[in-house]
Amino acid sequence: MSEDLLEVSGGCYCGGVRYRAKGVMPQVTECHCSQCRKQAGHRYAVVEAKTSRLEIAGADKISWFRASPEGERGFCSVCGSTLFWKSSEEDFSAILAASIDEPNDLEVTKHIFVESKGGYYEITDGLPQFEGYDRPVTAG
Q1: Which of 30, 32, 39, 42 could serve as a FRET partner for 124 with CA atoms 20 to 30 Å apart?
Q2: Mean pLDDT confidence for 29-57
């Protein structure tokens, strides 16, 4: 996997929202928290980007839902595609990996909020797992 920063482009299912982001790390984080699972219907898989380096065409078609004081979630108001999680306090956005155009150089590297994952699946890929953002899951 490359450590180089990427420029990615992508969009929603109907094509009404398109975006380009510069300075994106190729590492994908899978989030298993209940908010992500409720919105996406399964776990979230995201890459990190600075909000200030994210250009959006069709931004008028994005609906924003404030899921918590920390951030809001953006989705296409036409087709419902989940696209972003944006921090309320920092220059930080998470972009849904599935919305990024293929081919790309992305690779899943870790799982977060595994303590609240759905009971209907197991995480068996051997990648690092965290209880929250940065608390490693420990055996025992």
Answers
A1: 39
A2: 94
Residue keyed to tokens 């409720």: 38
Tell me the two tokens of residue 24: 């994106």
DSSP letter for each residue of the chain: ---S-EEEEEE-SSSS-EEEEEEE-SEEEEE--HHHHHHHSS-EEEEEE-GGGEEEESGGGEEEEEEETTEEEEEETTT--EEEEEESSSS-EEEEGGGBPSS---EEEEEE-GGG--TT----S---BBSSSS-B----
pTM score over 0.85: yes
In sequence order, what are the beta bridge partners of 138?
none
- Domains, the chain, in order of start with CATH, read 6-116 (2.170.150.70)
